[in-house]
Amino acid sequence: MTMLWTKSPKRFDVPCTVEIEQTSETLHAHVVLDGDIAIEPGDQVRVHDAPTGVAFGERLVVRRTATVVRAGPLDRLRARIEGYLELTELYEVSFSDGRAS
Question: So which domain of life are we looking at (predicted)?
Answer without folding.
Answer: Bacteria
